[in-house]
Structure formats: structure tokens, C-alpha cells
Design goal:
Layout (H helix, E strand, L loop, with lengths): L3 H10 L5 H25 L5 H25 L7 H15 L3 H14 L17 E2 H5 L3 H10 L2 H14 L13 H25 L1 H25 L16 H8 L2 E2 L3 H6 L6 H6 L5 H10 L8 E2 L1 H4 L7 E3 L4 E3 L1 H6 L2
Parallel strand pairs: 1-4, 2-3
Antiparallel strand pairs: 4-5
Helix pairs in contact: 2-3, 3-4, 3-10, 5-9, 8-10, 9-10
Length: 334
Amino acid sequence: MFDRQELRAVTQRFQRAVPRTAAWQLVSTFLPLLAVLAAMQAGLALGWWWALLLGLPSAALTVRVFALQHDCGHGSLFGTPQANDLVGRICSLFTFTPYGHWRRQHAGHHATWNDLDRRDRGTDIYSTCETVAEYRAMSRGRRRLYRTMRHPLCMLLLFPPLVFLALYRLPYDAPLGWGREHHSVHLTNLALLAVYGGLAIPLGIWPVVAGVLAVMVPASIAGVWLFSVQHRFEGVHWARHAAWDRVAASLAGSSYLQLPALLRWLTASLGFHHVHHLAPRIPNYLLEACHDAHPAFATARVVTLREAFSAPDHLLWDEKASRMVTFSEAERHA
């Protein structure tokens, strides 16, 4: 066993912003993104295939923008709330994600992940699960619907673009008391209308729409896939609230996704998700250093890129066996 006070002291050393590094991350992300987006619009005059060709690098850079927005939401990219909020709202114009609304919903995820008694049964479907007992208690029709909704074609291809382009236009799953979060959604919509509507005047409506779709469809799919494989994998651990522990949930309830250097840069090191869950205030550019600073982090479940691309079919928690199982396993042993 490792000393938890020592582990806490290690993570505290890395919970500090480095403004120069954060500023360089913005420059090295937005300059190439804006250049590729401009090239895409220029290329569209020659044919629609330019949108498909340049949409992929634009989408990859947009995933990185979302990762930077994510850091701003945790107050970790820069040292002041004002700087984080300003950059987070600018990022939202590229990710189509209302900054304030998403920040509060995501804080809820960090408060309840892998806790069976505090699961988010609403929108956080990519990191939650049902137990085998709950699945078996469903009617046959509800089981069929549940399995259909969580089929990879729906979960990882159909739903992500709908979430980012449509659902995020509404203050969904936000109580009436979340006044600031409601305003965040509406103000983001107005800002998107002003920016992309303004671009449509000189460029035309359809080229702008084509550009948005060519970027946001693959970017949303990649981003949701990344979030999903960090929380749902064979070997992940869930616990009832009385036995839930933040350190154990971080090291056994979120993965260490090993990525090659380019993908690690594009995802802003969020493959070190076990470190991020233990200490969300560590900025992305210090996650790897923190991981290397204590042997406890080496105990996290390593998910390779090959494993990550495998069909995510372990979706039910078997409390008796203390492991995730497939629908087929749950049906077979019913």
C-alpha cells in the first residue's frame, strides 16, 4: 500500500498554473486551427471534397480546444478565474459547448463518478452504468430499448453530433435554480449566431454550414469516444457510497489511456485521466509529470489504443462478481 498523505502532497505540488505554458498552448492550437478553417472555406470554392479533406485536421484541433476549455472549467489552465472563464467562453465558440452550463454539469460528474448510490441517471450516459440486477428487473421491451440506445452505432456515432449541435442549444438537465447556467446556454447561442451568421454574409450559408458539420461531426464523435473509454472499460471498479473512496475511484475507476505523442498532444494529455480525477486542479500540461512523480499512479488500469478502439461492450456492473459484464453475460446467467 502507498501513503495517501504522501500522494496528496505530491498532487498538491502540481496544482499550479504556468501562464506562459498555457498561453503557448492557446497560440499553438488556435493559429493552426484558424489557418485550416480558412483553407477549408477557400477550398470549398473548388469543391465540397475540401470540407471532407480538411475537416479531419480541423476536428482534431477542435478536440484539443475542448480539452483546453475543460481545463478552464476546472480553473486549472490559468491562475485566475477571470482568465479561465474568458478563455473557456472563447473556446465554446469552436466547440459549440456552453461553458458555464457544461462546467457545472461536469462538476457533478467529478462528485459522483463510480459511486453506485449517486449515479447520474440523466445525461451522463457515457460514464455511468446500470447493475445486472437493475437490467434483469427491466421488462423485455425496456431491455431491448436500453440495449439499442447503448449500441456503439448510437452511442458513439449518432448521439455525439446531436448532443453538441442540438442538445447543447438547450439548458437541458439544468434545474430552474441554475440561472447562470441557463444564461450561459442562451448567451452562447447568441454568440454562435453572431459569429457564424456574420461569416455567412460574405461566405454564404451553405459553405459555413458544411464547414461546421465537417468539423463538429468527427470532433464530437472523437471527444465522446475519448470520454467513454476513460470511464468504461473491462477492469473498471464501482462501489457503493459507504465504500466509495476518491483515491480508489481515481486509480481503479478511470483509465490510463496510453496514446502516441501526437494524439497525446491533441487530447491535451487527458489520457492521464486517473491523475485528473484524483486532482482536477492539475493543468493538462502537468498531468504526465504528476503521473511520473508517484508509483501509485502506475497501478491504474492501462488501456492501449488498440483496446480503446474495440467495441465498448462491457456496460453492466455485476455486484456479485465485482466486474463489468456484457449484455450477453447478463442474459446468459439470469
